[in-house]
Design a protein that fits this description.
The protein is of the alpha+beta class. It has helices spanning about 10-25, 60-65, 90-95, 100-110, 115-125, 135-150, and strands at about 1-10, 30-35, 75-80, 80-85, 130-135, 150-160. The protein is built from six helices and six strands, in the order βαβαββαααβαβ.
């Protein structure tokens, strides 16, 4: 049965280290990331190192480095949240439900509504949401890696 492991990072370096660890174990295609695009969100021109993530170009900023680890990077404008960066399988889900916000994408991804709303609020407040679809044998390892690198609110949810 497929599950999704979700966690929130409040430190970009820790998120990047966790993603690198997961990728080194062969999980790259199943990892997703959602974070506010601070450059567009009012943090000023250099907020994310000058990347134009909507075109997939990175110029060395911290979030660009993180997002560059994953496939399908895109920039979206989510009502009530603002500009975000999304990568991985969840990014495709979010592009189809922009009006439902991050919570709507997470619900479509398999999370309960109240948890989707909670994680949307975490991103709104500057958290970096990392999720990974995993089978039963990968769940504990994935959750452990997220916790090891400082993720909070690590949860496992059954997906259809």
């Amino acid at each position: 049965m497929s599950k999704v492991v979700v966690g929130v990072f409040h430190d970009r370096n820790q998120a990047e280290e966790a993603l690198e660890n997961l990728k080194s174990r062969g999980f790259g295609e199943d990892i997703s990331l959602v974070a506010r695009d601070e450059q567009q969100g009012g943090a000023g021109r250099g907020g994310l190192g000058g990347q134009d993530l909507s075109e997939g170009t990175y110029t060395g900023g911290a979030l660009g480095g993180i997002a560059g680890l994953l496939a399908g990077v895109g920039a979206l404008l989510i009502p009530g949240v603002g500009p975000i960066i999304a990568a991985g399988p969840l990014a495709a889900t979010l592009t189809g439900v922009v009006t439902g916000g991050i919570a709507g994408g997470l619900i479509d991804f398999g999370l309960p509504e109240e948890r989707g709303e909670y994680f949307e609020e975490q991103v709104r407040q500057g958290g970096i949401l990392v999720s990974m679809k995993a089978d039963d044998k990968e769940v504990e390892e994935t959750a452990s890696i997220l916790r090891q690198y400082g993720a909070s609110d690590v949860e496992v949810h059954q997906v259809a």
